[in-house]
Design a protein that fits this description.
With 178 residues, the chain is α+β, with helices and mostly antiparallel strands. The protein has one domain (2-177). 36% of the residues lie in helices and 39% in strands. The chain is built from 1 helix and 8 strands, in the order H-E-E-E-E-E-E-E-E.
Length: 178
């Protein structure tokens, strides 16, 4: 009879230790997941800034080289968020919803040609970060079988069309998205 009592106590102890372990793991994950998501979103913003700078530099290079000049960016990957290319102007905008406070809200920050702002949304604890490049020196036209906004992996060709805007005399740069 004493053997069965000890066996029962061992099982109770094992169950208590397993429960304690599961609770500890749950608490650690509860604290770690928001931090991991914040780091992931911060890395996404950094990668997107690099992509926008690469596209911006390519547009400037093509415009400076003159009519017929073209460059291909392969691949251009938008993993999170969405890229919007404004047709007829030069405005490349990337936006993403995030729960992380990646920067001070509602304050535009400029880093060289890159502008960024973090805005609140109507959904509690969800923010919208926008990163964009703009210029009044170039006009961009889009040639794509895909529609704005762009998400995923694309091959982008940037070409100086040889045409100039009638009102501003800005070169018209074609962005072909495949």
């Amino acid at each position: 009879m004493a053997n069965k009592k000890n066996s029962g106590q061992i099982w109770i102890s094992a169950i208590l230790f397993m429960s304690l372990g599961i609770i500890t793991i749950a608490l650690v994950l509860t604290a770690a997941i928001p931090m991991v998501n914040r780091i992931s979103d911060k890395n996404t913003v950094t990668m997107t800034k690099e992509i926008l700078l690469k596209v911006d530099d390519t547009i400037k290079t093509v415009a400076n080289e003159g009519p017929g000049s073209q460059r291909q960016l392969d691949p251009l990957v938008i993993e999170k968020g969405e890229l919007i290319i404004a047709n007829g102007t030069y405005n490349l905008l990337w936006r993403m919803d995030t729960k992380a406070d990646l920067m001070e809200k509602n304050i535009e920050v400029t880093e060289g040609n890159i502008h960024q702002v973090l805005n609140s949304t109507y959904v509690e604890e969800v923010n919208n970060i926008k990163v964009w490049v703009t210029s009044s020196k170039y006009n961009v036209t889009i040639n794509s079988r895909f529609n704005n906004p762009f998400k995923g992996e694309y091959v982008i060709t940037i070409k100086h069309t040889g045409r100039f805007d009638e009102g501003t005399d800005n070169p018209i740069i074609e962005i072909r998205v495949n």
